[in-house]
Structure prediction request, 382 residues.
Amino acid sequence: MYMESLISFIVTEYNYSAALILIMIGMYGMIAKNNLLKKVIGMSIFQSAIILFYISIGYKGGASIPIIKHGSGMADHAAIDPTLYVNPLPHVLMLTAIVVGVATLGVALAILQKIYRVHGTIEEDEILESLKE
Amino acid sequence: MKRLTLFLVVLLGAYLVWTTQDLPDWGDPASPANSYLSTHYIKKAYEETSVPNLVTAVLADYRGYDTMFETVVVFCAGLAVLTILRRTKRKHKKNVKFRPQREGVDIILQNAARLMIAPMQLFALYVIAHGHHSPGGGFQGGVILGASFILLALAYDLKSTLRRFKENTVLFYSGLGVLIYAGIGVISLVLGGNFLAYAAWGGLLGISEVEAHSYGMLGVEIGVAFTVMAIMFSLYLDLASGGDLDEGL
Prediction:
């Protein structure tokens, strides 16, 4: 019974399950990988998962992109039916999240270059070794 | 270590599967996230701001503060990369362990880039200026504009690109964008409205208050585009050359 509902969840709400799998991949990459660049890639995957999750939350079945069609919405026109347009709020939040993602990625890469310059490697254990000396 | 991580990740996954059982159905128009505020935006935003692209309307008007500090975040990230990596002659050390080297000149790449860069920049300006009515806006247009300069630097080399678009100019534009954004907010304060309340611009521009929202958003998006374009290019300059700006990838 429980298994059935789990399988139906994975199949019917595949957006959520895709976000879930991406979160797990990103988490694994961030913790298990030894190479700092791979950790950064894991972080980016984690971020994409969250973006996908939010965008999925804002989706409405059969709705269009959140741009009002010509000839509706103004005071003298027909009222807008909210079910025709997807929720614009997650799109706005994720637009800003993507920008922050690029900014953090840039800073992370810069720090990695600096680490490489000082230690000659971006493998975590080798950096710890060279810090001990 | 890897097995422990795998165990932890599977545990997290199982926990998330368990919690997602309570989530609303995918695509449900009546779910909590799709009611309340978002319904108000969809119904009223066009009437209140005369901008049909709801994402732009919410981004640049209703959540104007958020977007302003977003631009500041991008600006700060650019400055951070600059502080971490940039090496001027004074700071330059001799033992450079790694420096990207450029190999040869590719005529096909250079001519393709020459054909593409001008249409790219034109398209970027279209995306910025038409962001109210079609998908687009300052962030997207700024990224395309920045990418056109990155393409120039990739196809030719960093030095000839920097002769056309000097580093100081790039950084000037990144600051100018934030200044335009904050300036529009301050001017609407001076005109008697709240900070970033574009309705106050109506009297100055001789248009209705609703239309003033649209024009205010355009100004703000131009500011965002300047900053994003400049910081994208500045990030590339520093990351590709290791902060020396003499030879890139």
About this structure: The CA atoms of residues 69 and 178 of chain B lie 9 Å apart. Chain B touches chain A through 68 residues (CB under 8 Å). Residues 43-89+105-241 of chain B form one domain. Chain B has ten helices and no strands.
